[in-house]
TrEMBL record:
Catalysed reaction equations from the record: a 2,3-saturated acyl-CoA + A = a 2,3-dehydroacyl-CoA + AH2
PANTHER family: ACYL-COA DEHYDROGENASE
Gene3D superfamilies xrefs: Acyl-CoA dehydrogenase/oxidase, N-terminal domain (1.10.540.10), Butyryl-CoA Dehydrogenase, subunit A, domain 2 (2.40.110.10), Butyryl-CoA Dehydrogenase, subunit A, domain 3 (1.20.140.10)
Domain Acyl-CoA dehydrogenase/oxidase C-terminal: residue ranges: 229-377
Name listed for the protein in its UniProt record: Acyl-CoA dehydrogenase
Acyl-CoA oxidase/dehydrogenase middle domain span: 122-217
Record organism: Virgibacillus phasianinus
């Protein structure tokens, strides 16, 4: 067993860390406060090749592995979780299914634009009445000659409004539950496709979350990903990898919170000594660091399995579950280490705590991760 990262993976980590420090962190608090997405940051990620990390060079990627990808999401999220999820949704949720299920033309047309960062991607599964129970969606796609006509709405869509390419799931057979779902690539600007409410959120506030509305939206049949009825399988296998992207986001948030807490505990003096010299504080830091190492091992392991063509769905659900819960515990404790100052916007730990919460909710709540893991353990 070899736990050592390769030179390429270490170099990528350093590159993303430097980029995040220089170009992402300085505006993180301000973007959070103003709920402002910055396309310029995404464009800079594109210049560095981050928008196409795992895709072959022939499709505009840099041909690295999934471990490199989770390292990038981790390093971005360490300073700005919104930027981390922008990249995670773009790569795991929109680009991955096109790379995996797309025909050559779809890959050339859509994946290349996503990989080079010319286009930003999004994934639209959830609906007002269909969150955890994704198969109960009501958006429909009715065949009409060589096109499909989409009607319905999607909610909570990350990168909504700012993305250029959307992977949209809709029922081509309304009577069949999950077997009636199909997947469509829909471009921003398509007639009948508009954006509704933008959510006002607790955390990841510089990542836009928006409603999508389809009113007689005509999509050519060439934009169907896979065959009719393949949509639910595409959605689920996409989430298998996507969940590990969220684990990486949670890991980065947790590491950022620990970094801040360690720095503060060494500097802040009470009773004539740094607060870190109290066992009550140093034990907290020790527990936080141990949780982080465990989360990192699970996350890198799931990515390694995927890179090596081995099953990774269970490990990915586990990494998301563990890292999300750990990030919540760790960020709450980081605020505690900062005392009253941690409760203010003068320090970043309150933002980390608000950002951590979402990692227990999206890409399947952590109850759903337990359901997925439990079903795998007990299936006949
Ligand atoms: N891989 C391949 N196939 C899968 C699968 C997987 N991981 N999971 C399920 N399937 C298949 C099953 O084998 C079954 O196929 P057959 O009919 O051929 O046997 C079919 O799908 C239906 O499976 P289930 O009966 O298990 O389906 P279900 O309706 O009980 O739901 C669920 C299962 C796991 C709860 C699923 O609905 C789910 O994942 N819900 C959570 C939704 C979710 O995660 N949404 C995330 C939205 S994206 C997001 O949030 C973005 C962001 O963070 C940025
Ligand atoms: P519900 O499904 O109504 O669940 C409510 C509660 O009941 C939860 O605690 C849940 O765990 C629990 N519960 C439900 N069923 C069970 C069960 N069987 N067993 C035990 N407990 C259960 N979706 C997309 O498609 N694309 C996106 O890009 C996207 N981005 C998002 C960004 C944000 C900021 C948010 C908040 C959500 C996003 N989502 C996205 C949607 C997200 O995936 C859903 O919110 C999530 O899957 C939960 O669905 P729900 O909110 O409808 O909760």
């Amino acid at each position: 067993m070899n736990f050592q990262l390769s030179d390429e993976q270490e170099m990528l980590r350093k590159m993303v860390r430097d980029f995040a420090k220089k170009d992402v962190e300085p505006t993180a608090a301000e973007r959070d406060e103003e709920e402002r997405f910055d396309r310029g940051i995404f464009n800079k990620m594109a210049e560095l090749g981050l928008t196409g990390i795992p895709w072959p060079e022939e499709y505009g990627g840099i041909g690295a592995d999934y471990v490199s990808y989770v390292i990038a999401v981790e390093e971005l999220s360490r300073l700005c979780a919104s930027t981390g999820v922008t990249l995670s949704a773009h790569i795991s949720l929109c680009s991955w299914p096109i790379f995996t299920y797309g025909n050559e033309e779809q890959k050339k047309n859509f994946l290349t634009r996503l990989a080079t960062g010319e286009a930003l991607g999004a994934y639209a599964l959830s609906e007002p009445g269909a969150g955890s129970d994704a198969a109960s969606m009501r958006t429909v796609a009715k065949k009409d000659g060589d096109d499909y006509i989409l009607n319905g709405s999607k909610v909570w869509i990350t990168n909504g409004g700012v993305a250029d390419i959307y992977l949209v799931f809709a029922k081509t057979d309304v009577d069949a539950k999950h077997k009636g779902v199909s997947a469509f690539i829909v471009e921003k600007g398509t007639e009948g496709f508009t954006f509704g409410k933008k959510e006002k959120k607790l955390g990841i506030r510089s990542s836009p979350t928006t409603e999508l509305i389809f009113e007689n939206c005509r999509v050519p049949k060439e934009n169907m990903l896979g065959a009719e009825g393949d949509g639910f399988k595409i959605a689920m296998t996409t989430l298998d990898g996507g969940r590990n992207g969220i684990a990486a986001q949670a890991l980065g948030i947790a590491q950022g919170a620990l970094d801040a807490a360690v720095g503060y505990a060494k500097e802040r003096e009470q009773f004539g000594k740094p607060i870190a010299h109290n066992q009550g504080i140093s034990f907290k830091l020790a527990d936080m660091a141990t949780d982080i190492e465990a989360a990192r091992l699970l996350t890198y392991q799931a990515a390694w399995l995927e890179s090596n063509g081995l099953p990774y769905g269970k490990q990915s659900a586990m990494s998301k579950l563990f890292a999300g819960d750990a990030a919540m515990r760790i960020t709450v404790e980081a605020v505690q280490v900062f005392g009253g100052y941690g409760y203010t916007k003068d320090y970043p730990v309150e933002r980390y705590m608000r950002d951590a919460k979402i990692t227990q909710i999206y890409e399947g709540t952590n109850e759903i991760q337990r359901l997925v893991i439990g079903r795998m353990l007990t299936k006949p």
